[in-house]
Write a structure and sequence with these properties.
This protein has about 325 residues and is mainly beta. About 10% of the residues lie in helices and about 45% in strands. The longest helix has 17 residues. The chain is globular, with a radius of gyration of 23 Å.
Length: about 325
C-alpha cells in the first residue's frame, strides 16, 4: 500500500475515534482505496494552452501529449500550431514518476517538473530562475512553462505540427537531428547528421510504428559515436526494433544490424513484445516481459528477460551480437 493510501486510512481511523462514542466502526478498506483512486489525477491524455480554444481566430497554441510507456514512466510530447507558421515549440522527452501527481524529466541539463491535477497539468523547472534554459525548444525566446487544461479526444489535426518525434543528440563533436513525421501512407523517420567530414546528407526511413526514444554513445570505444533510434509497433503488442548508425572515422555513417528476438529460438520463448531499450555504458540492453501459456497481453506472469548486446565489426558493416541474457523472476 502506498503512502497516500496509508495516510488516508489513518485519517479516517482518527476521525472515527473522535466521533464514535460507544463503538469503533469498521472501516471498509476496499471502499477507501477505491475512493482515493478516483481522486488521483489521470495522467495520460492531451493538454492545451489557453489559446487553443481561440485557434479558429488565428491564435497560436501549445499542446502537451502524455502517454504511459512503463510502470513509472511517461512520454511527453510538446507540439504547437503549424498550419500558418513555423511551429512554436517542439520537444520529446521521458518523465519519471516521483509520486502519483509529479513526474520529472532532465531537459537540456535542467530538471523539469510535470505536476498533474484533476484536469490540469502544470509545467515548471525545479529552479524557477532556470526556465529560460528551455528556450532552445521554442522560437521567439519563449518556452513551454505554464498551465495546461486537459481536453477529451484528439488534438486539432488540421493545425497541429505533424512532427511525431524530434531530438538532437551530439557527442564527440558529431551530432544527429532525429525526427519522425506523419505522411500520407505512414510515418517517416529522418536522420540528419552534422559534423562529419565528408557526408552529412539526411537519411530517410519509412517506418511502421512509433519512435519512442533515441540515444547516442561511443559503443565500440573508437572515438566516434553511434546513434540508436528505438521503435515500437502500433497496437497492443508494442513490438520493439532498433535503427542504428555508426560513424566511420568521423567521415560518414553506416547502418548497424540489430537481430530481432523472433530469429532466436531460445530467446523468443514467451516473447510478446512490450520491449524497452537503453544504453548501459557501452552495451545496448533490451528488456521485455515473459509470457507463460495462458497469459493475457495485459498480464504477463513469467518475469522479465534482459538481453545485452555488444557492437562488433561484421564483414560488411557493424552489428549487434548477444553478449548475455538473463531472466529475472516476477
Amino acid at each position: 500500500m502506498n503512502s497516500s493510501l496509508k495516510i488516508a486510512l489513518g485519517s479516517l481511523f482518527i476521525v472515527c475515534l473522535i466521533n464514535c462514542k460507544h463503538e469503533i466502526k469498521k472501516v471498509d478498506q476496499e471502499d477507501v482505496i477505491e475512493t482515493i483512486k478516483q481522486e488521483l489525477p489521470e495522467v495520460a491524455g492531451n493538454y492545451v494552452s489557453d489559446y487553443y480554444q481561440k485557434r479558429d481566430e488565428g491564435y497560436d497554441w501549445i499542446a502537451i501529449s502524455v502517454k504511459d510507456i512503463g510502470e513509472n514512466t511517461i512520454a511527453i510530447s510538446v507540439r504547437s500550431r503549424a498550419d500558418k507558421k513555423k511551429p512554436t515549440c517542439t520537444l520529446d522527452t521521458k518523465a519519471y514518476k516521483v509520486n502519483d501527481s509529479l513526474f520529472t524529466s532532465a531537459v537540456n541539463g535542467l530538471t523539469v517538473m510535470f505536476t498533474f491535477h484533476k484536469d490540469t497539468l502544470n509545467i515548471s523547472t525545479e529552479i524557477t530562475e532556470q526556465a529560460d534554459g528551455l528556450q532552445y525548444y521554442c522560437s521567439g525566446g519563449g518556452n513551454f512553462i505554464g498551465n495546461y487544461a486537459r481536453i477529451d479526444g484528439d488534438l486539432d489535426q488540421t493545425q497541429i505540427d505533424r512532427t511525431i518525434f524530434s531530438r538532437t543528440l551530439e557527442l564527440q563533436g558529431i551530432g544527429f537531428l532525429v525526427s519522425s513525421t506523419t505522411i500520407e501512407f505512414g510515418k517517416e523517420l529522418q536522420i540528419t547528421p552534422y559534423g562529419l567530414e565528408v557526408d552529412n546528407n539526411p537519411i530517410t526511413h519509412i517506418i511502421e510504428g512509433t519512435v519512442i526514444n533515441a540515444e547516442i554513445e561511443d559503443l565500440n570505444s573508437d572515438g566516434f559515436p553511434e546513434l540508436l533510434v528505438y521503435l515500437s509497433s502500433d497496437g497492443s503488442g508494442s513490438y520493439g526494433d532498433v535503427i542504428g548508425y555508426s560513424v566511420n572515422n568521423g567521415k560518414s555513417i553506416s547502418a548497424i544490424y540489430f537481430p530481432p528476438v523472433s530469429e532466436n529460438d531460445e530467446l523468443k520463448k514467451g516473447y510478446m513484445g512490450h520491449d524497452e531499450f537503453s544504453i548501459i555504458e557501452t552495451t545496448l540492453a533490451q528488456r521485455f516481459p515473459i509470457y507463460k501459456e495462458g497469459d493475457t497481453n495485459a498480464n504477463p506472469t513469467g518475469g522479465i528477460r534482459q538481453i545485452e548486446y555488444q557492437l562488433v565489426d561484421g564483414e560488411a558493416s557493424r552489428k549487434f551480437v548477444i553478449k548475455n541474457s538473463t531472466d529475472f523472476p516476477e
